[in-house]
Design a protein that fits this description.
Blueprint lengths: L1 H14 L13 E6 L2 E7 L8 H9 L7 E6 L11 H8 L3 E6 L8 H7 L3 E4 L3 H7 L1 H9 L3 E9 L3 E4 L10 H13 L2 E5 H7 L14 E5 L18 E5 L5 H10 L2 E4 L2 E2 L2 E2 L1 H10 L4 E4 L3 H9 L5 E7 L6 E3 L16 E8 L2 E7 L1
């Protein structure tokens, strides 16, 4: 049993290599073991390309006969963009298959299929780790909505800027590099119009060598300036607005190549529930909100947030802009408690991570 856990741990680490690139597919790693030696490895790199199991089988060559195959997610048993992996596993002569977790996609029934075909099959090895790895894929598959993370960088007294709006930079270079790495792993990064007007951000992962995500601006009345940084790459920009947006400006932006999403409006503002539904239809599976207090509190109140990351710098600002706006909480008993919180030090800063 110990060796199963050891090899599954290696499989999960291998799957990690697909982070940021496999979307909307899950991250999958596969290791093939024979007589205590790893003879084949594979990692799913990009949607539409070969699955990890096929790559590992090809890597193992003839050594695949009578081997044990480890995979962090149940192998597919249906025709999608690629043929079913269960067929390749059976044809290759694998003797035993060890799986981390079930696939939430109802079309996938690889575990039962392999058992039925006479292979020795185990499931649920390091299941918790396998689920954490693919938390985005699980949410998107079950709900067709993106997994939404709020990221906040604040002082120790909860401020994201001084009273004049000065905010560059509260956290350390190490924390900012960490955030850029996170950006490169997301399908999209989201801000509100206020952040665009105040900071004119680029929202690129320039401090790391990674994929540049889509940028989403929540702009209920379509007041985004034509000369803002985000306008430089219109194909990377999604603007969420309401029917109050001037029709001629919508047209102009669309002609430039900007994706304009007109959502339902809620009290005159973009309905965030409708927005995440529309983003899901565009195969956006993960979003990181890097907005100000208003967007943060609206997203929490609307129930669209899954996870929160709070980078806290050992600095005191005093009177300034708060990290999260009004949530209407009057009693401390009603305060929102984060689930499964963890903390880690990044540079001089502290990162608190938890789920809503």
């Amino acid at each position: 049993m110990i060796s199963h856990k050891k090899y599954m741990d290696l499989t999960i680490k291998l799957a990690e290599k697909g982070r940021g690139f496999a979307s909307p597919n899950p991250m999958v790693g596969c290791i093939i073991v024979k007589r205590g030696r790893i003879v084949g490895k594979g990692c799913h790199k990009k949607a539409g390309t070969e699955h990890a199991e096929v790559l590992a089988i090809n890597d193992a060559g003839k050594k695949v006969m009578n081997s044990t195959l480890y995979v962090n997610l149940e192998p597919c048993s249906h025709w999608g963009r690629t043929p079913p992996c269960t067929e390749r596993i059976v044809e290759a002569g694998v003797r035993e298959v060890v799986i981390g977790m079930r696939d939430p996609n109802p079309l996938v029934d690889g575990f039962r299929e392999l058992k039925f075909r006479g292979l020795k099959t185990k499931i649920g090895i390091l299941e918790k780790d396998a689920k954490k790895l693919n938390e985005v894929y699980i949410k998107y598959t079950k709900t067709k909505r993106p997994f939404v993370t709020i990221k906040v960088a604040m002082s120790i007294d909860g401020k994201i800027a001084t009273s004049t709006g000065s905010s560059k930079f509260i956290t350390s270079k190490e924390a900012r590099t960490y955030v850029h790495q996170l950006r490169s792993e997301m399908d999209a990064v989201m801000v509100g119009l206020n952040t665009v007007l105040r900071d004119d951000p680029e929202l690129t992962p320039r401090l790391v060598n990674g994929k540049d995500p889509m940028k989403i601006v929540v702009d209920s009345n379509l007041k985004i300036p034509k000369n803002s940084h985000l306008m430089k790459e219109p194909g990377k920009l999604i603007i969420a607005t309401t029917s109050k947006a001037p029709k001629n400006y919508v047209k102009k932006l669309q002609q430039k190549g900007v994706n304009v999403l007109v959502t339902n409006s809620k009290k005159g503002m973009v309905d965030l529930q409708d927005l995440v539904k529309q983003l899901g239809r565009h195969e956006i599976t993960s979003v990181m909100i890097e907005g100000g207090a208003q967007l943060n509190s609206s997203a929490i109140k609307e129930g669209v947030v899954d996870k929160i990351l709070i980078f806290t710098a050992p600095k005191i600002i005093g009177n300034g802009l708060g990290a999260i706006g009004n949530l209407g909480i009057k009693k401390i008993n009603n305060a929102i408690s984060l689930k499964n919180p963890t903390t880690k030090k990044i540079g001089k800063d502290l990162l608190i991570e938890g789920y809503l």
